[in-house]
Amino acid sequence: MKVVIVGAGKLGMKVAKALLGGDHAVAIIDTNEEWLQKINSILDVMTINGNAKETRILRRMNIASYDFLIATTGNDEANIVISSLAKKLGCSKVIARVRDPEHMQQITFIKDAFDIDHIVNPDLGITLEIYKYLAEKYTLSNGIFSSGNASLIEFRVEKYPELIGLCMKEVTKVLPNMLVVGISRNGKVIIPHGDTVINNDDSLYVIGEKGPILDLNTKVHVRGKYTDLQKVMIIGGGKTGFYLAEKLSEFGAAVKIIEKSKERCHYLSTHLEDVMILHGDATDLNLLEEENLDMMDAVVTATGFDEDNLLLALTAKQHGIEDVIAKVSRTSYAEIISSMGVDMALNPLDITTSNIMRFVQGSKKVLSSQLIQGQAEIMEIIATPHMKILDTPLCELHLPKSIIIAAIHRGSQVIIPNGDTEILEDDKVILLSLLSDLSETERLLKDAGRLTFFRK
Prior knowledge:
Layout: E1 2-6, H1 10-21, E2 25-30, H2 33-42, E3 46-49, H3 55-60, E4 68-71, H4 76-88, E5 93-97, H5 101-104, H6 107-114, E6 118-120, H7 122-136, E7 144-147, E8 150-156, H8 168-174, E9 179-185, E10 188-190, E11 203-209, H9 210-220, E12 231-235, H10 239-251, E13 254-259, H11 262-271, E14 275-279, H12 285-290, E15 298-301, H13 306-318, E16 323-327, H14 334-338, E17 344-346, H15 348-365, E18 366-372, E19 376-382, E20 403-410, E21 413-415, E22 428-434, H16 438-445
Parallel strand pairs: 1-2, 1-4, 2-3, 4-5, 5-6, 12-13, 12-15, 13-14, 15-16, 16-17
Antiparallel strand pairs: 7-8, 8-11, 9-10, 9-11, 18-19, 19-22, 20-21, 20-22
Helix pairs in contact: 1-15, 1-16, 7-10, 7-15
């Protein structure tokens, strides 16, 4: 497919790298010529220096020949206008990044009025993952993901202590015909391998046939309310803080936001009901103690600075807070986070890029997908004739460590794979992949052959 990205910022670059993994032909438009020169030196893309709001730019690049335009600039209005113009000029589908709460209140009208196919909101995306974890205590709906006759269950290993201390090779003796496809450990989702050992604080993601998985569910999950969440402190009153405070307040929690900007505090106080807004610097430990940090059930650090979010999350953990979640945009901080004991670290760029990629892929290959703890994705794909993963034992595919083949649907049969299993044409394959390595996922899903900017 031919895809043009408007905006060479963090999101635009993340999406471009993911698309290139699937061998899509990618063009990038930006007004900053220096950025484009740097991009040309590291990515195999076509770059265009100009303002995409000018129709002459879109016409000159023959926008009608493109399958997708993705507008990712930092300005909502620009993204809406650019997407609408591209659609009017013949681009097949358009995607716009829109973040402001005022726009989200009328998002359906905006989509219809400007003929936009899909809208992504990084702040709302990360908010929904945090809310699902805090308010529902599950990163999967009701703890179970089902597709056909296969189901994936999520539970803390303390609910099934027989698994503690076992490596993956030994788990099948306790859970026959099931496979541990993911482990949540110290705020980080990891893909286990044969010698990975289960620790006593881990949360597990186990897949198998629906019947046995539902039986396991009765042992590891209890009916009733899963959380007694009452008091939440959100550090940072930006868009993520706004969306999260709104949802948690509606849930019934007492929410407190600490925000450094006095002007932003005024905005929050006039747009949020039943939420306490405090003007102050949360890096001041005295302020946190005065605001009863120790009494919080959960703390979410959502400032615009990764370093502050990590420092504040560590501070909250040291004060014994049960659930601590940090918003972190740099993938390079992943190892630091896993050693801190933070319960969840979320990257809005990863979540948004995954959202965009699933829309671009459509339903031709990806039948369904769902995020796991905002860091990984469980998806079901159709094995199409030209995929390189066909008719080869899994042990010979040399899959990246960020991906695991979880199950295969072949007719009415569910296959829990091993190294000798082969994927056949028209199989429905369930796989788990880390969002931090989306380009590898797209590389796995791609068909043989490479598309160029010149249509055949």
